[in-house]
Design goal:
The protein is of the alpha+beta class. The chain is 45% helix and 19% strand. The strands form 3 sheets. The protein has a 5-stranded antiparallel β-sheet with strand order 1-2-3-5-4. The protein has a 3-stranded antiparallel β-sheet with strand order 6-8-9. Strands 7-10 form a two-stranded antiparallel ribbon. β8 and β9 form a beta hairpin.
Length: 266
């Protein structure tokens, strides 16, 4: 038994608590597993040995294990770690939380851009996979140290067949809170983003964006109506062109025009 414990101890080294990254029910650690940096999530002491919370962390592992997205921290395993108990093992994410960057007033235009693209992509992925999760907050958004990529670290504790409209509304509302907070420190950000944040935070949910797709289109100054209008205009032009080629005003003979139409429409 002592030999097995010794091997297990050597497997895990440099375990360090990261209190700033703690979640509502979990403590978060960084550690080396066989010399490779990983992160650990384990139940806070007051929740350990409670079957309800043990079931919760096991279910979170089951839900998140098959998720794969570049802006969501991936789960690798669920196992016993000496001194900590059962832990969810995730990829290491070395960097700063958005909360820390806000406190230190280090938020810039590059963070705004990634919140409007990478965070929106991650939320879209979570919703398409019907993942129920805790509210997105600055504490759960990490920017990696070297590249500055955005990563969500607290994503999903349940998976349903379908999400409710309220679930989607909550994501859009919380995105608006994050965006609004960041824009306070980036006064030269694109002006339309303040309007978008305000729409996300509208007291009347019916006046918010109905879904992530609509939010994304507005961020890039596009709308479904504009896309549909462009398609309709294109079709009208094509029909007009075909009629013209088949008319007496066409610069080619009817037989040639007919051949052209057959090629064009085949």
């Amino acid at each position: 038994m002592s030999e097995q414990n010794n091997k297990n101890t050597q497997k895990w080294t440099e375990i360090e608590h990261l209190p700033e990254w703690d979640e509502e029910y979990y403590e978060v650690y960084t550690a080396k597993k066989f010399g490779k940096w990983v992160m650990l999530k384990t139940l806070k002491p007051q929740f350990k040995d409670d079957p309800r919370f043990e079931s919760m962390i096991e279910k979170e592992f089951d839900v998140r294990y098959n998720l794969a997205h570049p802006h969501i921290v991936m789960i690798n395993d669920y196992e016993e770690v000496p001194g900590l108990g059962k832990c969810i093992i995730t990829d290491d994410v070395y960097g700063d939380s958005l909360a820390k960057l806000l406190r230190e007033k280090k938020v810039g235009a590059e963070h705004v851009e990634k919140i409007c693209t990478q965070l929106v992509d991650a939320l879209d992925y979570v919703q398409r996979n019907h993942i129920v999760h805790f509210p997105v907050r600055p504490e759960t958004i990490i920017f990696t140290e070297n590249i500055g990529n955005l990563k969500l670290i607290d994503v999903g504790f349940d998976q349903r067949e379908h999400l409710t409209p309220a679930d989607a509304e909550e994501d859009i509302y919380n995105f608006g809170k994050v965006l609004s907070t960041v824009l306070e420190q980036v006064p030269d950000a694109p002006a339309h983003l303040k309007r978008i944040a305000a729409k996300c935070l509208d007291e009347n949910p019916r006046r918010r964006y109905p879904n992530i797709h609509s939010l994304r289109l507005d961020i890039v100054h596009r709308s479904d109506n504009k896309i549909y209008l462009a398609v309709i205009i294109f079709l009208i032009l094509m029909i007009g062109l075909l009629i013209w080629f088949n008319s007496s005003w066409a610069p080619v003979k009817p037989d040639t025009a007919a051949g052209f139409i057959n090629i064009f429409t085949s």
